[in-house]
Known about the structure:
This protein is about 30% helix and about 25% strand. By secondary structure, it is α+β, with helices and mostly antiparallel strands. The strands form three sheets. Strands 10, 11, 12, 13, 14, 15, 16, 17 and 18 form a nine-stranded antiparallel β-sheet that branches. A five-stranded parallel β-sheet has the order 3-2-1-4-5, sandwiched between helices. Helix 3 (about 80-90) links the parallel strand 4 and strand 5 (about 90). The protein is globular and about 60 Å long. The N and C termini lie far apart (about 50 Å).
Amino acid sequence: MALVVAMVGGGQLARLTAPAALTIGVRLRALVESATSSAAQVLVDAHVGAPDSAADVARLLEGPPRADVLTFEHENVPPEVLDAVARSGVAVRPSPEALSHAQDKLVMRRRLAALGVPMPRWAPVTDEGDLATFLVEVGGTAVVKTARGGYDGKGVRVVTEAHQVTDWLASAAAGGPQLLVEEFVAFKRELAVMLARRPSGGIRCWPVVETLQVDGMCAEVVAPAPRLDPTVNEAAIDIAVRLAEELDVTGVMAVEMFEVDRDGQPGVVVNELAMRTHNSGHWTIDGAATSQFEQHLRAILDLPLGEPSARAPWTVMHNVLGGHVGGFSTALAQVLARDPGVRVHIYGKEPRRGRKLGHVCVYGEDLAELLVRARSAAAILEGHRLPADPRS
């Protein structure tokens, strides 16, 4: 009988996990938001329900057959629901305790501070006075975040005056997400480390990548990060591995970092954590020996981990954002005719401005050429016109 993985969430991460599960003979069952969600379109075993409903999650586990492990494509599952799953005898991976560091930025910052991990200066915020004091300390500009619920630029504001988050403070006082403030880091670029850890021990890391953010959302990933100082590469991996061990993470984890230069010394500071598959690891589907999706399944089932090395010297992943097109059929044909080597992944979502509808990936030996190819393919899928291909 096949191993059964129950996954909370029906978005693109669950959808992209499906082919990996099929390949290694794992049965993937997902709790989806609707019968038309991204994952529900490709999964035979999709159950409509709410991630904050203990009853819906319990039904997801029972099947039949009963699930061997519960995992997630997002962090929006209440701790009490996860505790109930653990008491039922089904393994929760990552554990509720580990996941809390990805669910709540205040929990994460306090734990990282206790571990001495390099990160931006930060402080909890409960009123405008707290924020005003912090702004003075850091030179007048800071980043305010909601401790829970933020993603893709949501729940984040760059501020210069305390009154710019008056609405958030009122919401927090009324029981909404609590707030924290961080210094505005003058970083050289953004990096990410993806790794996987299994319960019985063993960690495998993919190459450190460079991520390009636009309007708070990941637009592009280059693997490996170009021109990365060896000492920075080593420091980034060492920090990620240490966090995985100290937080007792099981499964895939993404550690988003800022590359900085402080007092003439290159280094990194930790920005965010995600204990699941992640946009910065999508390049691994086509560009690595083992994708993040297969590796996550291996890790949570305590199977031997796969080889994470890259297939080629360079891989470029570029997201496809919605808002310009009503369908992909014509654009897809144009992309595939223009560049037969590009890999296209579409998520089955209705187009909406700023929404991630898919991604493209190319790999090879010439980074400059790969960047042009990936950006051109994504632009066509987004509905932009390009000049004729000079190779045709």
